[in-house]
Amino acid sequence: MSLRKAFLSRKGSNSRSRSLYRITSKSASPNNALRELRDLQREEEEEENKGLVEKEDADVASDPIQENRWSKMLPELLGVIIRNVDSTEDRWPIRKNVVACACVCQRWREITRGIVKPPQENGQITFPSNLKQPGPRDLPIQCFIKRNRRNSMFYLYLGLTQIADKGKFLLAARKFRHGSHTEYIISLDADDLSQGSNAYVGKLRSDFLGTKFTIYDNQPPYDGAKPSSNRASRRFASKQISPQVPAGSFEIGHVSYKFNLLKSRGPRRMLCTLQCLPRRETVDKPQKDCNTQKPELSVGCAILKNKAPRWHEHLQCWCLNFHGRVTVASVKNFQLVATVDPSQPEERGDEDTVLLQFGKVGDDIFTMDYRQPLSAFQAFAICLTSFGTKLACE
Amino acid sequence: MVIKHMIEDDCADNGIRVPNVRGEILSLVVAYCNKHGPVQNDSEDNSRSDELKTYDADFVKVDQATLFHLILAANFLNIKSLLDLTCQTVGDMMKGKTTEEIRKMFNIKNDLTPEEEEEGLIWKNLVVASTPEGEEEFRGENQWSYEIW
């Protein structure tokens, strides 16, 4: 049969199902069945030869049998399709195709979520939920922050190029000054920075001097986390998120700034404590409780401090090696290393590995590079403290 | 060759049809296997692979219903290369489309619950340039909405 003929589908596509039914209902003996089968074959061949009508797409669309067949398809097959999309569209802006798949219907969402790996594994940010998951272990995710002084806004972008000129928008923050403290509301929507909106993801709160900061997450960082009792958060709780998730503000970290008392004219000292989910148990450690559904995860606390710059006698300035990612000297620039890191074996931090790097590259543009165990949200909040602290060098 | 034998075994037995695969789809699959089946010696590799690529590209220029049935058939008959080809084609069809366009194209009903819709969020894709003019240009082209979960 020629391919062209094969493309043209038969007019009465239900004839086959009808005939099959006929066989099963009528067959009394094997001979009858065989005869009927041969009759059927002859019938179908005749139909094919009579001349076929091309089925139009309109028929497919209005046929109730055809609706949803692409969503009811075997999950493995849908998985193959979506996995292809995930692996080929691995950079923004074409990564949006993966997100588009995840919004089609429940089935597709389930399958896409199952396929797309977290940033720790693929170094990619695909969904908003990836913003609260740790970055990769080896190579940092490169982002940049744009500041708008006029409206006290900060915008975080995932960098698409080496220089910070093109990016995928991730988060926005706005500074709100209250009497005794300052708050930065962090949101997924650059136009909606209210705590009651669905886009709200967390906030940063500072004391009056800007030396102590607390980072709040609007979602519990781990199961069973207790929200901090905060009148403001309770007021907005009813509008937020789905009923299953407890609303509220959850303290997930602290940042503090100090003058460097040991060295005169030294850069300020930063200390950062963060709640981090440590690595999952490795296979060689025996599972303590095999009956539980979830693996045992204890919440760890990461302690980070800023890497001390070296005094460059010749240049008469403090120097840090930013590997080209920071090009303008500024007291805001910093590199954070871990002293305690629950995501590493033995929980000790490697003081040479820079987990968060932040620095100026233009008037209102700053690069931000982060990696495990920090998430984009945590990194952004910590960088905002650098804008918020008034503590400069002595 | 193995696949070809399998097909021949499946459908040649006393004229019993493969119940999950329609006649015309089966013939397409057989044609594909016939084209891809024969093993080559090395000297012909380059021209043959180009020839196959062209064949494949034409092979998948079918209507959506046929593509759907081809995927199911390739899966049922365990023909990996055909499955990959057809799934890749579907992926290509979806490129650059918004969610609503994908739904329309494949006639899929939006069954997300009201909660899931309400959690709906605009994750604006502002692909920005560092100059204000550049920003305007990108902002126009690249906005779409996604849902948060």
Which segments of chain A are poorly predicted (pLDDT under 50) over 5 or more consecutive residues? 1-30, 48-62, 231-246, 280-296
Q: What integer is the average pLDDT of chain B?
A: 70
Straight-line distance between termini of chain A: 87 Å
User: Helical content of chain B, roughly?
Assistant: 55-70%
How many angstroms does the end-to-end distance of chain B come to?
A: 47 Å
Q: Main β-sheet of chain A: number of strands, strand sense, barrel status?
A: 12 strands, antiparallel, barrel
Q: Give the strand content of chain A.
A: 15-25%
Helix-strand string of chain A: HHHHHHHHHEEEEEEHEEEEEEEEH
Total DSSP helices of chain B:
8
Mean pLDDT level of chain A: 74
Summing up helix and strand content along with how strands pair, one would put the structural category of chain B as mainly alpha
Assembly form of the protein:
heterodimer
How many beta-strand elements of chain A? 14
Strand share of the residues of chain B?
under 5%
Could you describe the largest sheet of chain B, including whether it forms a barrel? 2 strands, antiparallel
Radius of gyration of chain B: 22 Å
- The total count of strands of chain B amounts to 2
Strand order of the largest sheet of chain B: 1-2
Helix content class of chain A = 25-40%
Strand order of the largest sheet of chain A: 1-2-3-4-5-6-7-8-9-12-13-14
How large is the count of helical segments of chain A?
A: 11
